[in-house]
Structures are given as structure tokens and as C-alpha cells.
Design a protein that fits this description.
Largest interface: A-B, 44 and 44 residues
Strand content of chain A: under 5%
CATH architecture of chain A: Orthogonal Bundle
Number of strands of chain A: 2
Structural class of chain A: mainly alpha
Order of helices and strands of chain A: HHHHEEHHHHHHHHHHHH
Low-confidence stretches of chain A: 221-227
Number of helices of chain A: 16
Largest sheet of chain A: 2 strands, antiparallel
Shape of chain A: globular
CATH topology of chain A: Farnesyl Diphosphate Synthase
Oligomer: homodimer
Strand order of the largest sheet of chain A: 1-2
CATH class of chain A: Mainly Alpha
Radius of gyration of chain A: 20 Å
Chain lengths: ~325, ~325
């Protein structure tokens, strides 16, 4: 379990229960399948999304069994999208470990992702309401559409901040929003409170993804545990690049006309993005989302979990960068 | 619409409504996505599974809106599995048309399949009961596990009829059973009747897949609209092969030790399978399932749709082979 939860014993013990529940639900005769999913479960992610479900559920009438089920579903939906993303990206490692597709083959990874989707809806049908299933499946459609949009816009020279924000809204913020919303709505919180938590998730998610995208331009393989500049090499232009390209259209034109980048190109682009303050501008926008998130958190009703949410958001969004 | 429905105007008009419903549900801003799914919808399949939902729903209190939604879901789940299967099989064509993965790329096909899954659960949450969603997601898990089992057993020399039957039970029969069961259960048929329809679907599905698998050994690309012997080339050993290999272990040993087959190998194997009456034996087992299906259909309560189901099963299973 990630050390981010060390100070929150109640959240941590619930997350342990969520892990047990996931283990129970992916048990199957085929041990290869079971083991490959178990590896995903133990792969050391932060478990932010299930934690958000637990936290939001505590704003209503906390029903442990229900909250844990919903949390397990959200984490497994997240796992399913990661497995399929790795197929698309041809990724060799994730979180420092070999990916399902690299270890067992792409074919296998496609079906493992599908199997995880099915398990999620099976759990939902046993523990959630029809309304929640509707919200979940709509969210998942938006996530898929976001991923497809990202595919379609690879090496697309028509850059726009708006398109980028739309893309990360689907790709990342959606599942953060869903986590906080579902926890609230299914524990009987009012519509207004559930929607407020949805918005908090959205703003945390947007800030989180923008910050993550700046790491491609400043980080190295050690500190972010993924190959630096991986998005760039795939022709995915993120916010620091977009801001920099706006400031120096002529120089970036050369790169925007290319259909693949050499290591030398990547190095030059990183220098250019820094020179034109692409990272600084991106951080400024991340800050706006962060502030919005904190303002919305401050307006939540008094509850011990309000402080937890605030502290976790601080750890995620105000980390050293 | 396939001519199999020409004599059944009521079923045909409901299937037209199912197509409209699918069109409505896959509408989205991204026209590329919408068009690629529309192509799947119009690609000229028999629409057996949605027709089974419609037929079974008529054994209860027929609610057109509900029956059409469930039928659309089953057809789209089927489409999602086909899209992902084509990714795995690297298939260039299906039903005589270029596959999504061949036309738009594998990456795109993975997400299109995922998007279809999400749309299915969104429709289910609006039109079905939690119980149905549970049954559907369990069925879909079994289908995924069946596909993974098929992947795992490629070029596996430990052949067994039992494993083969398990595999096609998950791969094909499950969705046939689910179609008839869901239609019945959601239109208020008794548990016993719903289960009887499940069994009918199972037996039709088993016979259907066995017959389809014999076509790899007798058919040609024209008559079955898929490259002959495609399964064999991928190391998927179906019933005619398994029966023949049991009769002449020594000769087949040579082929079972290989990890790929040349065109010459495939030609020789087809000759051997015919020589050892693999097709005849497979047809005999298909006949058993067919007879079981007809017996179960005969025991259905009197209803105009009983005769339709029987005639359709005859067309599918007693076709010239």
C-alpha cells in the first residue's frame, strides 16, 4: 500500500478490504489469468480512485460493503483501461513492472481488459443501483472516446488548449469525478453534495494530469517511473508543448510537420519548451484547477474526511515540481 | 437484413427497430467512430442473437421497447467481441467486408470494442433489471474466459473433446443462451421457462459452432465467406481434427509437434481429417445437440413463436453440409 495513506488508518484499512474484494472477484479456474490480474492489483499504484470512493462515501451513511464494492469496481475499471492503453502504446513497463501485454502478449491483454470490464459490471449489478450503473457506463464511454480522440490527434499539428483540456477531462478527470460522485450518491448524499464532489474530482483530475504531463518535459525515467518524453515520441502533444508552440510558431512548425521524432528531436523540443516557458504556463493552469479544487473542498460540510481529502489533494497537487 | 427473416414479418420489423435503436445509441460527435460502428451494424450478419431475444420475449408479456433494447445490447456485445477477436486474429475481412482493425488500425479497434461494451451497459441500466445485468456480465466474463482459453490452447497438442466443448460453450453457445434467456426472463416468463430457453440456446449454439468448424475442413472461401482453414493455421484444433487425431495418433503426432503450418501442411491435414472421418464424427455430435434443441423446443408452451424458433433452428442446423 502506498505510503500516502499511512496517516489515514481508516482509509488504509478500507483499501486493504478493497484489495481482498478484488482478489475474491478475479479468482478463476485459469491460474494464468488470475495471476496476471493479481500482479496488477499488487503493482503498487496509489489507489487514489478507490480511496476517493471511500472518502466520499463517508459524507453519507457509510455502508462498508457497498463502498468497498464500488471502490473495487472503479479501481478495476482503471486497471482495464491501463491494460488496453498499454496495448495501444506498446508499453513495456508500467509502475516499474512489466506490462501484461509485454509479458503475456497483446492478444492476452485485450481479453484481460475485457474480462476486467465484465467483472466490474457483475459487481455493480450486485451492489449498486441502476442509476449508478448508468453513470458509470456513461463515464466509461467518455473515457473511451477521450482515448480515441487522443489516438486521432497523434501528430496532429492543429494544436489547441481547448482540445487538450477536453482530452484529459475524458482520459483522467472523468474517473476521479466518478469516484467521488459514486461514493457520495450511493451513500445517500444529496444531489447537490454529490455534484460538488464530482466537481472536486474534476478539478483534482485536471490539475493532476497537467502536472503529470509537465513531467515529460522535466522528469527523468527514475523520478516518474515511466520513460521520459514517451507521450511526445508518440506524437501526443501536451500542454507545455502547446503553450510553447503558440509563442514560437515558426520554430515549432518544423517539428509539427514531422511524423516521428528522433531522440535528438525530443531533446531539442524539450529545450524549446523550456525556453518558451511552456512548463511554467502549464503549471499556472494546473494551479488554477488546484485552487478551484481547494475552494470546493473548503465548502464541503464539516466531516473528518474533509480534512483527509484536502491533505491528499495537497500531497498530489502541491508536490515538489 | 438477412433473408432468413423474410418469412417472419413481425420478427423482421422488430429487428429493423433494433437497428434503429443501435444507430441512435452509437451516435457521437466523432464521426469516424460513429461511421465505423455503423459499418458493423450494416455488415449483413444474420442478427440471430437479437432475433432470439425478440422470439423469447414473445413467450412472456411482450414489451417492445424493452425487448428491442435487450436485443440491441446482445447484438452490440456480439459486435464488441467480434471487433476484439479480429484484433487478435489479425483478420483482414469479416462477412466479406474489411475489419475495423484492418481499416482503422488495431489501436482504434481495441477502443471501439471497449466503447461498444460501455454503450451496452448504459442501455442495460436504462432498460433492464439488476438481475439481468448480473446475468449478462457473468455471461460476458465466460465468453472472455472462453476466448482466453482458446488463446492458451493454440498449438496445444493435448487435445480433448471435453476441452473443445468447453471452449465453444463459452465462445458461441453462451451468447445464444443468453439471448433466449434474457428475452424470456425480462418479459416475465417463469424461471423454468427461462431456463428451458437458456438450454435451447445452448444446444443450438453448440450445434451451430460444431457445424461451422466442420466448414474449415470442407468449405472454400466463397461458400463460408472466411478464409478456409483459418482456425487451423492459427493452431486452433476443432472437433473434426480432434476426432481424426484420436484415430491415427502416430500420423497426427508429426503435425501436433509443429508450431506453425504451411499451406502444404494444411492441405495434408484436411485430407487426413477426411480420411479418418473427422467430419462425419463431428456432424454426428452436432446432430445430437440439434436433436436435443428440437426436443426442448417441442416442449415449449404453444405460441406462434415456437414454430418460428423451430424453423429458424432448422435453417441454421439442418442446412446442406
Amino acid at each position: 500500500m502506498d505510503k500516502i495513506w499511512d496517516n489515514y488508518k481508516d482509509v488504509k484499512s478500507e483499501l486493504d478490504a478493497v484489495i481482498s474484494l478484488m482478489e475474491k472477484n478475479v479468482k478463476c479456474k485459469d491460474k494464468k489469468i488470475e495471476n496476471s490480474i493479481m500482479e496488477l492489483i499488487y503493482s503498487g499504484g496509489k489507489m487514489l480512485r478507490p480511496a476517493f470512493v471511500i472518502i466520499a462515501s463517508n459524507f453519507g451513511n457509510y455502508d462498508a460493503q457497498k463502498a468497498r464494492s464500488l471502490a473495487a469496481v472503479i479501481e478495476m475499471l482503471h486497471m482495464a483501461t491501463l491494460v488496453h492503453d498499454d496495448v495501444i502504446d506498446d508499453a513495456k513497463t508500467r509502475r516499474g513492472q512489466e506490462t501484461v501485454q509485454s509479458k503475456y502478449g497483446k492478444d492476452y491483454a485485450v481479453y484481460i481488459g475485457d474480462f476486467l470490464f465484465c467483472v466490474c459490471f457483475k459487481i455493480l449489478a450486485s451492489s449498486a443501483t441502476l442509476q449508478s450503473i448508468k453513470v458509470d457506463s456513461k463515464s466509461m464511454s467518455r473515457i473511451c472516446l477521450g482515448e480515441i480522440d487522443q489516438l486521432n490527434s497523434r501528430f496532429d499539428s492543429k494544436l489547441s488548449v481547448k482540445n487538450y483540456l477536453n482530452r484529459i477531462s475524458g482520459k483522467t478527470a472523468e474517473l476521479f469525478s466518478l469516484s467521488l460522485y459514486t461514493g457520495a450518491a450511493e451513500s445517500g448524499c444529496s444531489d447537490a453534495l454529490s455534484k460538488q464532489l464530482w466537481k472536486i474530482g474534476h478539478n483534482i483530475g485536471m490539475a493532476f494530469q497537467i502536472i503529470d504531463d509537465t513531467l515529460d518535459y522535466v522528469g527523468n525515467a527514475d523520478s516518474i517511473r515511466k520513460p521520459a518524453a514517451s507521450d511526445l515520441k508518440q506524437g501526443i502533444f501536451t500542454l507545455p508543448f502547446i503553450y510553447a508552440a503558440k509563442k514560437d510558431k515558426n520554430t515549432f512548425k518544423y517539428y509539427l510537420e514531422k511524423e516521428s521524432f528522433s531522440d535528438e528531436d525530443v531533446k531539442n523540443i524539450i529545450l524549446l519548451v523550456n525556453k518558451h516557458k511552456g512548463i511554467v504556463s502549464a503549471k499556472e493552469l494546473a494551479d488554477k484547477y488546484t485552487k478551484k479544487a481547494f475552494k470546493l473542498i473548503d465548502n464541503l460540510p464539516e466531516n473528518p474526511y474533509k480534512m483527509i481529502l484536502k491533505e491528499v489533494a495537497e500531497k498530489l497537487l502541491v508536490r515538489s515540481y
